[in-house]
Write a structure and sequence with these properties.
homodimer, about 500 residues, alpha/beta, about 40% helix
Chain lengths: ~500, ~500
């Protein structure tokens, strides 16, 4: 087919106009289902734009389900009636240009409940999509790069796992998770995170929220200290489980120990390797102070190590668990960031002090991850695929990270850049005291979505923020550059 | 290879001697890994036993991982060192001849925590295998027939699901479960169970235990009434979540409403379609009484419909949920029995009275089932595979069920047979007042494992039992016949 797109809207960038035009053609049925669209090169040539511009539009249309890519064949228009049923899914998909106008809790939930989330939860159900093109770049801190998910390997492993010889995989498994997978997790943690543990200490579960529910039955619902700002999804879980949450302010090293000591908290939930959202990496001194606090009163530290795989400067920092001599640290790990949120596999490493209590109180709970999925992941880990995947993703993310920092150079005089040592997002703090809300508004005017730090705060009095969060994991280099350019302009006015 | 098995042990049946001999040959390395064993026919001929006798031994060796079956090629000796790592798995596999000497809680846990369990949990972790041949027939009430699991279909669907076009399946999904799957569940429930509901009321989760955890956050931990005897795994969950459990005695129609009214319970957990373990099918009158009890006080009934798919006599009985006019029934369904325990998919259907509270209190919890698994199951349901599978399994189970009842004829003068209308197990009550413990002991002497009803009781004073439970789902017709013959002899002494 031939496509001629009139670039009438001078204010909107080319990608957006191409995206909007094709989306409407499909919605109106003017492009029939199963019609093959022009190749990105062909369309780019005929429109006189860059091929990556067309690619970006196509990617978004795929992400929203309007186009279906077929390997080696190209892009095809999807069936609309199917799309209608997909209403919800669209909302949950990563999509650089998708956003919605909701503010307050909804926006907050989105900002926290998406792919970023170790347990991979999404926004509230039932929210219809729409306004798909309000933002043409979305610096979502919750995305991961799925274009490089090892589908081929995953499909191969799953095919090889589903054989009659493995029929036992369809019978009940070990409540803690299959031993083979737990052994693989132990080996990974020892080599990559300096965590020495036995398979008996590992509990495999479908997402961090579920594991926190289990933990709640081990620890009881005593007051729990959280870094402020923090990972809101964990906050919601603790609250709904009846914990009283004590927000503890942070300094540049992390949770302030004085404030923690002043509280009656028996448990502290922390992210020492790369605090979310501040990106702070907790120095050894602070770690020792927190370990001491825990050791004194028979207290516990929950170490959420959600994205430690991605670190770009300095030597990798071992997990806090590794330096705990008193069995006070509970390690929470996940494959949501390192593989994909939707494989739904997280794990706890219990200190020996809790092993017996776990067997007694929770030993009867069946694992929430299917044995087939556990076996696929075990092989992914054991046969070297995971390591190769991680190295590859580290490289990809580092490139995006460096691209972002380069693009941010012109803004350095007006903004302080934080949390750029690791992870998949950075923070920009206005040196001129420009308020967060204004930064978000001005960004929205030029069609760029950024996220405010204030949404991550627990204590209301700390919500006066001048900081925005930029995630880059699911953006292309071009999107990052163009997006930052647009922000530079918007914030210079 | 040639195999000559000396049948030295006159007391043990042929299967067991064949099984033991080959197992030891492999353990000792006298049969090397990857060696192809004689075909069942060849070995049967050379030993002068029936082919099914050899088959039974091979099946058990496969179940315990000593042999690996290869389609069209035969049986091969497995690698021992691999087997050592499988120590735990062996324990968790269904295996007609496997048993262990543990009594009390352990035995109780086994009797409840196995495949029978809607949430598909297993025995406690870390328990070593061994004594693999103490029982040559195990009438476990927790088994399902996995020899007829539709592997080919499952593999096909999983292969077709894992494509680049579906990459969005690896991003976060809908917290309640993907809409497509929830719609499929609604359609199934309407046609098969008389349950009318909207996808918004359905919550997909990884196992019934997880869904009961969620429910706990909806209903709070008020006193909960349970049928006595009942499904112990649910009892453990409620207890560990801090509910006070009120055991309510049963008459032939199910939970006694007078006793329920006398209690302060606000919630009642019941299995009206086929009570576990008694097999009682609750008549309409009793259902109405319970619905009235719930409607009066704004109370709730949790209807666990764990194995309603399998019913052999009379017309199918619709779910209690369908006759609830006041939004007091919470429906709990599972695919553990109807597909396989290890796919880890169960679901709740909330009454409209609880929808809003769910969104508020639990709406942020991510679904614990991976989107890939949800999509595979959706297609399994939507494309007719599930219906065909169910019809097939119904036929298979009915045959085993009829075979069991036929074999039991000679015992009818000494035993009352109960719960034979549906499900995958029946109860035998001694008319001569022979105590349960003695029945179990005598059965064990002849190498047959049966289960005592007393282990399912909550109130100690009701533990004086004369009833044993016979499950038959994972036994062959020959095992059932030979097993019952042995029991007849053992219990005649």
């Amino acid at each position: 087919m031939e496509l001629w797109i009139p670039f009438t809207d001078k204010s909107a960038p080319f990608y957006e106009q191409i995206y909007r035009f094709i989306k409407e053609e499909i919605q109106q049925g003017r492009i029939a289902a199963h019609t093959r669209l022009p190749s990105t090169r062909k369309l780019a040539d005929s429109l006189g734009v860059s091929r990556s511009t067309v690619q970006l539009a196509y990617d978004q249309l795929v992400a929203e389900g309007y186009l279906e890519p077929e390997p080696y064949r190209g892009y095809f228009a999807a069936e609309i009636d199917v799309l209608l049923n997909l209403g919800q899914r669209q909302e949950e998909r990563w999509s650089p240009m998708t956003g919605d106008g909701e503010e307050g809790l909804a926006a907050d939930t989105r900002a926290e409940n998406g792919e970023e989330d170790p347990s991979g939860s999404a926004g509230e159900p039932g929210r219809a999509s729409g306004e798909g093109a309000r933002f043409w770049v979305d610096f979502s801190p919750r995305g991961i790069d799925l274009d490089h998910f090892p589908f081929h390997t995953w499909r191969k492993l799953s095919r090889e796992t589903l054989t009659m010889a493995n029929k036992s995989l369809f019978t009940s498994g070990n409540p803690q998770g299959e031993r083979g997978l737990r052994e693989a997790v132990c080996r990974y943690l020892q080599s990559a995170r300096g965590v020495m543990c036995r398979p008996e200490q590992v509990i495999v579960g479908a997402g961090s929220e579920y594991l926190l529910m289990l933990l709640n039955q081990l620890l009881g619902s005593s007051p729990i200290a959280m870094e402020d700002p923090t990972y809101k999804q964990a906050y919601r879980v603790f609250q709904s489980l009846g914990h009283r949450v004590v927000p503890v302010p942070m300094d540049k090293s992390g949770m302030e120990v004085e404030a923690l000591r002043a509280s009656d908290a028996r448990i502290a939930y922390i992210m020492p390797s790369h605090q979310y959202p501040t990106g702070i990496v907790m120095p050894v001194g602070r770690r020792q102070e927190l370990l001491a606090w825990a050791a004194e009163g028979g207290r516990y530290l929950i170490e959420d190590d959600y994205d430690s795989e991605f670190r770009y400067r300095g030597r990798p920092i071992p997990a806090l668990y590794g330096s705990d001599r008193n069995g006070r640290v509970i390690y929470l790990g996940t494959f949501s960031k390192s593989v994909a949120p939707a494989i739904r596999v997280s794990y706890l490493v219990l200190p020996e002090t809790l092993e017996a209590r776990y067997r007694e109180n929770c030993g009867f709970y069946a694992s929430t991850v299917s044995r087939v999925d556990q076996e696929i992941l075990r092989r992914f880990l054991e046969e070297g695929y995971f390591e190769r995947h991680l190295n590859r993703m580290r490289g990809l993310y580092r490139n995006k990270h460096d691209c972002l920092l380069a693009a941010l150079e012109p803004l350095r005089d007006r903004f302080r850049i934080q949390g750029d040592m690791a992870g998949l997002h950075v923070l920009l703090e206005s040196r001129e005291g420009c308020r967060e809300a204004e930064l978000l508004e001005r960004a929205a005017v030029v069609g760029v979505r950024v996220y405010g730090l204030s949404e991550y705060f627990l204590a209301p009095d700390r919500r006066e923020s001048h900081t925005v969060i930029l995630g880059y994991a699911n953006l292309t280099a071009e999107e990052i550059q163009k997006g930052i350019q647009a922000l530079d302009g918007a914030w210079s006015k």
